[in-house]
Amino acid sequence: MHQALLKCLASPWTPWLPFPFWALVIGLVYFANTKTLQEASYEMARQRGEVVFHLVQTMRYWNTRHGGVYAAETPETPSNPYLQVEEKDFITPSGRAMTMLNPAYMTRQLAELLRGGKLEIHLTSDRLMNPKNRPDAWEEEAIRQLRDEGKAEFVQVVGERFRYMAPLFIEPGCQKCHTSYEIGDFRGGLSVSFPVDQIDEITTHLYRQSFFTHFIVYIALSLTGMLSLIGLQRLIRSLQQERIERETIIEERTADLHQEIDRRKKSQDKLHYLAHHDELTRTKNRRWILQQLKQLSAEGESQFALLMLDIDHFKKINDRYGHEAGDSILMQFVARMQQSLRQSDCLGRYGGEEFLILLPATDAQDAMEIAERLRKSSSDHPYTLHKDSIWVTVSIGVASTQSNETTPEELIGRADQALYRAKHAGRNLSILWEESDEDEDTHA
Ligand SMILES: Nc1nc2c(ncn2[C@@H]2O[C@H](COP(=O)(O)OP(=O)(O)OP(=O)(O)O)[C@@H](O)[C@H]2O)c(=O)[nH]1
Question: Membrane-spanning residues where (predicted)?
């Protein structure tokens, strides 16, 4: 989820996302505001119709309150043939003809004055006295709804005009002319109309301003969003870069650490190896062979033998062929010895050209046989030094345990004594230590 979000954020299209997003949001807000503006402009038009209606109504009320008003009779204001009241017409003492204008006649006069203008009014009824007041189709429907459904007003946009009609009811002063009506009876309606353009002139400006404002907000929000996302992408890239660098450093350091661990392990292994091996011949060293000897003794092993080997006249080899040749002879000698030994036998370099061989579970007789075999394996074939072949013999002192009482030190001492005898007896010999050797030593 986290990775998917990062991948999405890293896309080159991401910074453009605020544009469709804010287009949708601002579009919806603009649509809602436009709707409110439309309702406000409709309400404004309705109130305009209401104001005109009330103005005319007030004027009619004023007329009623005076029981009708008189005006000079002229071709534009002739005597009203539909008005049946006393003293409708009279001549003034100076001879001027006067005629009465009741509210309906006065309203019609006003309507005629306004006709063709931007604002028009029309007094109409479903029970006509003056055919000129005949309602048109829209007014007929308006009267029906005002009368039958008891509506307070009827408002509509018809074609290019906004139309408003409110009902008229019989009031006390009206019965002078409308004798057949009761007070409160529905009498008709007064319609007011004016071109929709008049409202549109105001609202179009508001629509334009609203559109402009919404557009500016849309661009500002989209650009801000775009810049923020570009900044976020850069931040993520730099953090990712930093993380990669840190991971690389960690990897490098881990590799260094592993190398160091390997190096230390190798040197530890080497130290461990050197602690138990002879560096030149790669065979076990003196310490290890002594440990083995002590271990065998400690475990209660009562029957084992020890051979002490010493290469004869080794100094001469060194002197004649050099120290390196001496080393080579030592290595060849060890290889020959190991070939002739059992797996359980342990060969170790005791020092210089001296070696010890520990033979577990071996009695004196077998030890002597092994010693002879070893001696012969050295003396029977020449050793090779470059192009030279040289003969190398070995003297061997053999000692074996006779009981648990023999200590490792005693055993080594005995093998050494036997070796000493072998050397003195002419070398290239295997000699077994015997009790009498000890006595000789004691006497010596
Ligand atoms: N090349 C070589 N020579 C060694 C090494 N260790 C000891 N030697 C030499 O071995 C020789 C031993 O000489 P000696 O103790 O006199 O014994 P030897 O010459 O073998 O005579 P005997 O033992 O009496 O037969 C010395 O010259 C040492 O320097 C080694 O690791 N390499």
Answer: 13-32, 215-236
